[in-house]
Design goal:
The protein is α+β, with helices and mostly antiparallel strands and about 140 residues long. The chain has 2 domains: about 15-70; about 75-125, no CATH class. It has 4 helices and 3 strands. It has a 3-stranded antiparallel beta sheet. Strand 2 and strand 3 form a beta hairpin. The longest helix has 28 residues, at about 45-75. It is globular. The termini are far apart.
Length: about 140
């Protein structure tokens, strides 16, 4: 049997991929996924799923850093920040935050950058620090 991606976890790679795809591609929040699991007599705590997401992000960080490096080597990039809804659990409402997209045009590579939902100038200055091409 193949090793599990997250130490001391029973979640396999397929389950983790399905949860993440459902959240970000199919726009299915974790609480709805948990309800769907309960319908199948599978009990997964919200803290467990949130922990898995963080663990998978840690596993993917080297790939993300390499992709970012390749994009920022390009001589011509495009960038845009766009709104995303962010759930504020304390206030029980949704607020607008921002996510940045950076694209290497000729290489057809893209990465996304999230900095607490900010679109402040300091985010752009840090994101493009040392960049030598055209934006």
């Amino acid at each position: 049997m193949p090793a599990l991606p997250i130490a001391k976890s029973y979640a396999g790679a397929t389950l983790l991929a399905d949860i993440i795809i459902d959240k970000y591609v199919n726009h299915l929040p974790f609480y709805r996924q948990i309800q769907m699991f309960k319908q199948q007599d599978i009990s997964i705590a919200p803290a467990t799923i949130n922990g898995w997401l963080g663990d998978v992000a840690d596993l993917m960080r080297p790939a993300y850093c390499r992709l970012k490096e390749l994009v920022l080597r390009s001589r011509y990039i495009q960038s845009d920040e766009t709104t995303i809804p962010i759930i504020n659990n304390e206030k029980h409402k949704t607020i607008n935050g921002y996510i940045w997209m950076v694209r290497a045009v000729t290489e057809n590579l893209v990465f996304f950058h999230y900095d607490g939902g900010s679109r402040a100038q300091k985010v752009a200055l840090q994101l493009f620090k040392g960049y030598q091409g055209v934006i």
